[in-house]
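Table S2 (text version). Query chain:
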Amino acid sequence: MIALGSDHGGFKMKEEIKKYFDEKEIKYKDYGCFSEERTDYPIYAEKVAKAIQEKQCDLGIVICKSGAGMTVAANKFKGIRCALAINEDMARNSKADDDINVLSIPAEYLTVSQVIAIIRVWIATEFKKGRYEDRLLMIENIENREMK
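Corresponding structure-token output:
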């Protein structure tokens, strides 16, 4: 199950992602927003992050104009590893090396076909484990120490 969230700047792209998911029978939950009316991205980054923390969803995708704000906001939540991807290689490497569980999409800079290709690669990529698990443990230790 994939949690989707966008602000107004990512709304149209989120709707295109949903069409792709419906076509491919990929299960998702839409956490908003639900129109192009101006809204604030941290609201939706939080909803997606909490859906993953509460195990309602396995992965998340957040979308705003630049992807930067959503990335920052999502990473404020314990256990969330959010990365911005502007191409397939970034998506593949972030999942393989860092087990990224939230993908951030910059709607203003990519076409729908580019975004779908990025998502397809990200979903299909497996985490490498091995030495990379040690790094995730280091991150978890930082979270436990620094996130109150």
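Notes on Table S2: Strands lie at 2-6, 28-30, 59-64, 82-84, 102-106. The longest helix spans residues 131-146.
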